[in-house]
Amino acid sequence: MKTVEANELQNHIESEVKIHGSIYKIRKMHGFAFVLLRTKRKVVQCIYSEEQAKFPLEELVEESCVIFTAQVVKEPRSKTGYELQLKEVEILSKPAEVSPIVINNKLVDTSIENLLNFRPITLRNEKQRAIFKIQEGITCGMREFLMRENFTEIHTPKIVYAGAEGGANIFKLDYFGKEAYLAQSPQFYKQMMVGVFERVFEIAPVFRAEKHDTARHLNEYTGVDLEMGYIESFEEIMEIETKMLQNVMRCLKERYVAELELLQVELPEMETIPKIKFREAKELIAKEYHRKIKDYEDFEPEEEKFLCELMKQKTGSEFVFVTHYPSKKRPFYAMECAENPDETESFDLLFRGLEITTGGQRIHSYEEQVKKMEKRGMNVELFESYLMMHKYGMPPHGGLGLGLERFTSKLLELENVRLSTLFPRDIHRLVP
Amino acid sequence: MKTVEANELQNHIESEVKIHGSIYKIRKMHGFAFVLLRTKRKVVQCIYSEEQAKFPLEELVEESCVIFTAQVVKEPRSKTGYELQLKEVEILSKPAEVSPIVINNKLVDTSIENLLNFRPITLRNEKQRAIFKIQEGITCGMREFLMRENFTEIHTPKIVYAGAEGGANIFKLDYFGKEAYLAQSPQFYKQMMVGVFERVFEIAPVFRAEKHDTARHLNEYTGVDLEMGYIESFEEIMEIETKMLQNVMRCLKERYVAELELLQVELPEMETIPKIKFREAKELIAKEYHRKIKDYEDFEPEEEKFLCELMKQKTGSEFVFVTHYPSKKRPFYAMECAENPDETESFDLLFRGLEITTGGQRIHSYEEQVKKMEKRGMNVELFESYLMMHKYGMPPHGGLGLGLERFTSKLLELENVRLSTLFPRDIHRLVP
């Protein structure tokens, strides 16, 4: 007799079924007990009563893995329309110890330190795991959209000979006696692949050796990267991102309803996303919040929050595209504006106070790219294999990178990006 | 006027279209020329004639990116049923130099060294890129199947505190003053996640610091990893893999026909996959090929080839599951057979002479796992966070890891696994 899936139970009303799972919680009542069984996606409520069950309640231990034989009984008062009367149990395994952290309440009531230290256990909490089911839905909505739009999914190396983003924020490793690095992004490779497939994407780990210790930084995260050729302007990349995120919302609403309800998430409206130029945004924030502009080349974290507040008031949107970032703050491959080379054909996407995407058009002309690198004092020879694509012909192109964990945390209104990372890596944390 | 996709051209017969792409090849004939345009997925044949075109042929250069205006003319003699008569051209970019390697013949006629050194260019070859379109189809067929079977897609860290597979084949890096490693597999994490979601999978890079320099080894590859709980035997994992691979074949046959034809690939039949015990396989090979068994604990590479030959002769199958590998050669988490602890509840999948998958049932009991680690002289304390899941309760479970590039190379009958890797990493190669 095969076990049934939790979401098939309603097809078995008035019959006996076998169902397997882990005992999540036992709640003793007067004369009976509720036994909550954690299955793949649903926590299923079962009823234990001495009259029905052929085993003593004491045999059941939380976090035991079991196969229950149960009668599916019609019960109009239950939310599901049925209840599961336990008959028999087969115990597959028992925990060696009781978890030091209570994981089967609505919330895991402990510090974030503990939540992460005991990750293999705390993730078993119904709400904790729902975060990652939704994260699956996010990637699923992105991937489906991108494949429909004729993007090809690629796998590029994470051990690399040069960093794409430059700077010191790069992990070094010894590669058979040579110095190698962990990829800060698939930037070089996804550009190369535009010359091959025109449109490509990758969802894969990226590594940043940043020493920041904040609620929004991770040293390893999942990058959603896309790159596309034959664009007329970087605005096309913003359009693709808008449509991709709309598809994510659609996918979540269709297929992840239970998790959205459990986490009480209201998905943001996003028919259109407003746009504002970086410089105008700086000035607007300074004016509205009576602040002095200290740094004309970058946002301070509070400014990103203020801007999102302002745009929400003005437009109702919780997303905002900031465009035309200063050239000085953008990488060497960023295309400068023809009318003003101090600005780039680039954008960030802010969502609920946080930057979740960086994107823009790239330089596709070999001469132009070499000139910009020389102007920046870079050693062009080191980038020979990168520049190969430009030398032998590239279409106008651009793309973006989105941080999956950042997006997830903001979508679910989590206070820390570590909460939307299964096993986060930060400057202090390498375990578990 | 928007550009059309290559696969929509048949809907535009007798009308004028714009189409963009890269000029793949110009073939001058008597009085006209064939101009092959490389688009996202298809190479489209266009006809240049002086009567029709409003520009001289000399304007066109191979690897230029262009937008053509063309008339779609009905032409029953053409394979597609139409031909494209060029009218106008808008040139978006021109290469700075002519590629030193000819990429627009049927085959790129050069050494594998050159093929890889000039990867950003050689991948533009129609057949070269088709390999990776099919690779996309493989992951797509796997992912679709696994999600339908209620597996949850996860993202686990690649910077880790301990290696899952043990041994010296692990890359070290400095992680803010601590010693860290690159994950040899997501083994520990996918097991932990079985305690959370019961069934999980991940398709992500794995890193092996092996010094092998062969046609089948890579130092970084894409691991397809799955892990599932509530199994009665490791044979269930073999069943899931069989169904997953059947779905891959279905997916390729439905959606990747053009690439299969281009590469002249015959997909293998795989209704059932034969099984043989490791020890029996060793003896069978020894007998049939008149060899002496040198190593009772592992296969020599030729033995894997011989076994596949034999099984193909006997059963018609190009796949074979080898089961019950010796305990000594399997990792510390492998479950031993109850009736014979020298053997494990494990399997490899061989395909066309090569191991493409390793899998098996894992130990789920805390006491049993600790005992085995102690017997192996391991420092149990170092694995505290791994053992947490066992301590607080785990279902019987198991899983597998499949090398995407190996599988792709064997499916397409490529002679070297590097040929199914976009940018391979081997003991000598870190660039591009």
Number of helices of chain A: 11
Compute the average pLDDT of chain A: 96
- What is the H level of CATH, i.e. the homologous superfamily of the largest domain in chain A? Bira Bifunctional Protein, Domain 2
Whole-number tally of structural domains of chain A: 2
Q: Give the helix proportion of chain A (percent range).
A: 25-40%
Please compute the radius of gyration of chain A using only Cα atoms. 26 Å
Amino- and carboxy-terminal Cα gap of chain A:
38 Å
The CATH architecture of the largest domain in chain A would be 2-Layer Sandwich
Overall shape of chain A: elongated
Specify the oligomeric state. homodimer
- Note the beta-strand portion of chain A: 25-35%
Instruction: Please give the order of strands in the largest beta sheet of chain A.
Output: 6-10-11-16-15-14-13-12
Uncertain segments of chain A are none
CATH class annotation of the largest domain in chain A: Alpha Beta
The counted number of beta strands of chain A is 16
Structural class of chain A: alpha+beta
Short structural summary:
Chain A is of the alpha+beta class. Helices cover 28% and strands 26% of the residues of chain A.
